[in-house]
Specification:
Helices cover 23% and strands 43% of the residues. The chain is α+β, with helices and mostly antiparallel strands. The protein starts with a helix and ends with a strand. It is built from 3 helices and 11 strands; from the N terminus they run ααββββββββββαβ. Strands 3, 4, 6, 7, 9 and 11 form a 6-stranded antiparallel beta sheet that branches. Strands 1-2-10-5-8 form a 5-stranded antiparallel beta sheet, covered by helices on one side.
């Protein structure tokens, strides 16, 4: 039973990497002027797409690009609705709840359950930017402040 699950996971991961790499190339062709001028400790968030999902309760699927300048990070926070993150470029250090810190590199992904405290989220590099996609399924009309609550 372990064999098929691993092959399936590899297939799904490869498919996701291919899909998101294509999207990244399309949407994020290069570093923007605002990103180049950002302070070294800055992190930038940009809503890429927001789509209403069918069914009840009313929900939105949202994709948010987060760019960490070299050495930058986010303060401790939580995501009320949970979030899935996918590293597009660079490497991101993350610590969710009481789990150990982990370094995720381009092509890696992780899940943060609703209400979990994201204690560490930072660029692993002091010289290169890192970029990730945050994927949310949230109540219809949720704002950026609703999705990420600082502690």
């Amino acid at each position: 039973m372990t064999g098929p699950a691993l092959r399936r996971r590899s297939f799904n991961r490869a498919s996701l990497i291919s899909l998101l790499s294509t999207a990244a190339a399309t949407f994020f062709g290069g570093t923007t002027a605002a990103q180049k001028k950002a302070a070294p400790s800055a992190s930038l968030r940009r809503e890429v797409i927001k789509q209403e999902l069918p069914g009840q309760p009313a929900r939105d699927l949202m994709l948010v690009e987060v760019t960490y300048s070299p050495g930058a990070g986010s303060p401790p926070h939580l995501h009320t609705n949970g979030v899935m993150a996918f590293v597009v470029s660079g490497a991101v250090v993350s610590k969710v709840g009481d789990a150990p810190e982990q370094t995720f590199r381009a092509g890696d992904a992780w899940w943060e359950p609703p209400g979990a405290i994201h204690r560490v989220s930072r660029n692993a590099s002091l010289t290169e930017a890192a970029r990730l996609l945050a994927i949310y399924i949230a109540p219809k009309g949720a704002t950026a402040a609703d999705l990420m609550k600082p502690l």
